[in-house]
Amino acid sequence: VQLQASGGGLVQAGDSLRLSCKANGSVHAINDMAWYRQTPGKERQLVATTGISGTDYGDSVRGRFTISRDNHLNTAYLQMNSLTPEDTARYYCNAEMFYWNNVGGLSKDEFWGQGTQVTVSS
């Protein structure tokens, strides 16, 4: 089971990007899915989360970013609008998932994607 993030790139201030995070493998169910971001030398910061506890956003992105998910595709999205250079970071997806383990039982664990770089030029 793994998370695969995509959609990052180099854009200009004011542009939009949509990130995708797909869960692959023997996924049974997904509780929460979230996006975090990190810049060199700083701690990983919560951007947005959605799941059984509802949806929430970091203060710096509220009103500009929207998280959504397609449960049939086991995929979460992050629509990012009105990007600024301060949004430049590596974005990581995170999910708590139930999956079928190698002995045929159900396990639950937290997974991280490999990250996708978003760079916003001024």
Task: Set out the fold topology.
Elements: E1 2-6, E2 9-12, E3 17-24, E4 27-38, E5 45-51, E6 54-57, E7 65-70, E8 75-80, E9 89-100, E10 106-112, E11 116-121
Parallel strand pairs: 2-11
Antiparallel strand pairs: 1-3, 3-8, 4-5, 4-9, 5-6, 7-8, 9-10, 9-11
Describe the structure.
With 122 residues, the chain is an all-beta fold. It is built from no helices and eleven strands. The chain has strands at 2-6, 9-12, 17-24, 27-38, 45-51, 54-57, 65-70, 75-80, 89-100, 106-112, 116-121. Strands 2, 4, 5, 6, 9, 10 and 11 form a seven-stranded mixed sheet that branches. Strands 1-3-8-7 form a four-stranded antiparallel sheet, with no helix packed on it. The termini are far apart. The mean pLDDT is 96.
Record field, number of beta strands: 11
Largest sheet: 7 strands, mixed
Strand and helix order: EEEEEEEEEEE
Tell me the Rg in angstroms: 15 Å
Number of helices: 0
| Unreliable stretches covering 5 or more consecutive residues | none
